[in-house]
Task: structure prediction
Amino acid sequence: PPPPPPPPRADTGELTEYGTPLGHPPLRQLLARRMAGMGIEAGPEQIMLTDSGTQSIDLILRFLLEPGDTVLVDDPCYFNFHALLKAHRVKAVGVPYTPNGPDVRAFEAALQEHAPRLYITNSGVHNPTGATLSPLAAHRLLKLAEDSELVIVEDDIFADFENTPAPRLAAFDGLSRVIHIGSFSKTVSASVRCGYIAARSDWMESLTDLKLATTFGSSRLAADIIFRTLTGSGYRRHMESTRLRLAQQMDRTAARLQKLGVQPWLMPRAGMFLWCRLPEGKDAATVARRCLQDGVVVAPGNAFSQSLAAGDFLRFNVAQSTDERVFTVLGKALSAA
Result:
């Protein structure tokens, strides 16, 4: 009998061609549906794919800022926000962060004193504190922003770690003065670089032009991998299992740290980070250096603090705190510090 016909050739465009300016349409449609589940109204045409959450912020900074502008950040906040703002030659001003969100009175004072152009924050699960924005704080922030030129960048990279969704500024605001961003490096893979920006319609063309000018399009292959992962039957089970294991490890890590006199600032509702105060008189930078000498990396608090007011704090990633050596080395470093 004649040999069977060869299988049809797969479309190699995903591997060999540039992506469309806004990015993979099916993934943008999926993201629009996911955001709608959090109360954020954004059509696929208001969503642009990027290579990462960091690139998303970089493009927004290019779009909205001039050198010398002022940007508000949480104090403490994700350390790379500081590096990005420094690279853009803008002034960063820290607003103290509380267990319910930024200190609203300090936020109001910073608005009046510095006339900032942007405020960058985490939604859902705050990095590094693990805190959750309260509805009251969210409403007060947006009320204060109404009388200013402030634009808020809401980084939602940890959304899928939540058990119960926290308030989203973009949902209350309707993407008027809030830009919502995210990525999948923490839930899928840090090696598959794919993020997104959701913003008001009249800003999308300028943001797209900037993306094309700086990277000539995001990865079609990465976007397709993310789309297939999110729509596959295993993703929901994967995240349910991940949330459970993180919650268990959060409790175990907190208990081990407390035995060493290291106290969590709060117990997060979700996520992977514990923001902890060291015993009185202990310097986090010194403790971190001593731990590093023994091959254990811990994150000193002032790496996250614009005002350098967190010298007695360390941030722990509970997912990376399963090895007994972490606590043995930390205990030794605390004794020597």
Observations:
- The chain has a mean pLDDT of 93.
- The chain is about 40% helix and 15% strand.
- The CA atoms of residues 192 and 222 lie 6 Å apart.
- The longest strand covers residues 91-98.
